[in-house]
Design brief:
The chain is mainly beta. It has a single domain, classed as Hexapeptide repeat proteins (UDP N-Acetylglucosamine Acyltransferase, domain 1), CATH 2.160.10.10. It is about 0% helix and about 35% strand. It is built from no helices and 27 strands. The strands form five sheets. Strands 1-2-5-8-11-14-17-20-22-23-24 form an eleven-stranded mixed sheet, with no helix packed on it. A hairpin with a 4-residue loop joins strand 22 and strand 23. The protein is globular, with a radius of gyration of 18 Å.
C-alpha cells in the first residue's frame, strides 16, 4: 500500500475522500484518514494518519495536521496552521447523546500561522490568533491573541512568540509601547493595547 495520485494531490490507499471535496495541489492525505463532503483542503497540506476533516470544513494552504486529529464542522483552519498529534476540537458546548444540537454548533477559527501543540484541546467558539502558540496539553476556553503563548488547563497567557516560533523576551515584557526583537529572525514588535504588532 502507498500513496496514490489523485489529480494533483496524493491519497493513501486506506484513506477516503468523498466525491464533493476540493483538495489543493501538492497535498498529501495519509493512512486511514477521511475527508467528508463539502470540505475544502488547500495546497501543500499534510494530513497524517487517522485524520478526519469535515463535513463543511475549510482548511487553508500549507496546513499540517498530525496523526489522530478530527477537525469537525464549525472549525476553520487558515493558511500555515500546525496541529500537533491528537489535538482535539469540539463544536458543541453542552453535548448530550440523546439531544440533537447540530443547529447549535459554535464556530472555531484558527488564524494564519498558529501552532497547536500535541494533545491540546480547543473548546468551540474561540478564535486562536495569528501566529499564536498553544502549548502541548493546553485547554483553550477563550480567545487567544495574535502571537500569544498560552499553556495549561485552562490555558493562560505565558508570553509572546515571533512569527518564526521563537519566544520573545520574558513574561515581564508587557508594558505599553514596549519593543521586542526576535533573537532568531530579528523581526521587531511593539505592544499596543495589550496586543503585539509587527513593526516595519
Amino acid at each position: 500500500m502507498g500513496l496514490k495520485e489523485a489529480s494533483l494531490f496524493t491519497v493513501h490507499d486506506t484513506a477516503v475522500v468523498d466525491s464533493d471535496v476540493s483538495v489543493g495541489v501538492g497535498t498529501n492525505i495519509w493512512h486511514f484518514s477521511h475527508i467528508l463532503h463539502h470540505t475544502t483542503i488547500g495546497s501543500g497540506c499534510s494530513l497524517g494518519q487517522n485524520v478526519m476533516v469535515g463535513p463543511h470544513v475549510s482548511v487553508g494552504n500549507n496546513v499540517k495536521i498530525q496523526n489522530n486529529v478530527s477537525v469537525y464542522e464549525g472549525v476553520t483552519l487558515e493558511d500555515d496552521v500546525f496541529c500537533g498529534p491528537s489535538v482535539v476540537f469540539t463544536n458543541v458546548i453542552n453535548p448530550r447523546s440523546f439531544v440533537n444540537r447540530k443547529q447549535e454548533f459554535k464556530k472555531t477559527l484558527v488564524k494564519k500561522g498558529a501552532s497547536i501543540g500535541a494533545n491540546a484541546t480547543i473548546v468551540c467558539g474561540v478564535v486562536v490568533g495569528e501566529y499564536a502558540f498553544i502549548g502541548a496539553g493546553a485547554v483553550v476556553t477563550r480567545d487567544v491573541p495574535d502571537y500569544a503563548l498560552v499553556v495549561g488547563n485552562p490555558a493562560r497567557f505565558l508570553g509572546w512568540v515571533c512569527a518564526c516560533g521563537e519566544r520573545l523576551g520574558g513574561r515581564k515584557l508587557v508594558l505599553e509601547g514596549f519593543s521586542l526583537v526576535c533573537k532568531s529572525c530579528k523581526q521587531h514588535y511593539r505592544l499596543v493595547s495589550e496586543r503585539l504588532e509587527v513593526v516595519g
